[in-house]
């Protein structure tokens, strides 16, 4: 959940996101969202060119049963705690920049494990700081990053992922210290 003022994505006077089933209770919505996104995550993800369109398709795939705007960039400012993510007017340009850099790096193919942990961690940190969607960024970015790792020949052992350690590393990366995230990724290779 995010701090947001007069958020058009929410039912008036609440912090509950408008959704396809018109669920107005946060706990019920959380449960439904968790179940359907977990089910979608078990299905094959959409194919694509590892570009911004492909990334949006990943988000759409996961959240298509929940939000009408699945796969589309947000139009409001959002923050977690005191950390504000990219303002909506800059999301498209920042996403294009990040994914152009990714293409220029040949999608991290041919990198050593150490290098991949470093460059992959930086990509994930940047993607998180943009946070292009109103909700569901964490799940979309991890699913896409796992796909990217497979494509680069560095598959992630996600069973080894400790969610708390990962979250701490993501927050540190937002604040400018990517070392813990690099370490987390290195441990998954
Ligand atoms: N205080 C913070 N500062 C920066 N990034 C954060 C902070 N708290 C969480 N994050 C990042 O935001 C992601 C969650 O984003 P969001 O809530 O849009 O995704 P989600 O898929 O709905 O949630 P989750 O990742 O918890 O399943 C986390 O996975 C983490 O990477």
From TrEMBL:
Q: Which domain of life is it from?
A: Bacteria
Chain ranges of the Fido domain: 50-187
Catalysed reaction equations from the record: L-threonyl-[protein] + ATP = 3-O-(5'-adenylyl)-L-threonyl-[protein] + diphosphate; L-tyrosyl-[protein] + ATP = O-(5'-adenylyl)-L-tyrosyl-[protein] + diphosphate
Give UniProt keywords alphabetically. ATP-binding, Nucleotide-binding, Nucleotidyltransferase, Transferase
Example of a GO MF term? ATP binding
Q: Which InterPro entries match?
A: Fido (IPR003812), Fido-like_dom_sf (IPR036597)
Enzyme Commission number(s): 2.7.7.108
The biological process GO terms on file are: regulation of cell division
Identify which top EC class this enzyme belongs to.
Answer: transferase
Q: What is this protein called?
A: protein adenylyltransferase
The uppermost taxa in this organism's lineage are: Bacteria, Pseudomonadati, Pseudomonadota, Alphaproteobacteria, Hyphomicrobiales
- PANTHER family hit by this protein: PROTEIN ADENYLYLTRANSFERASE FIC-RELATED
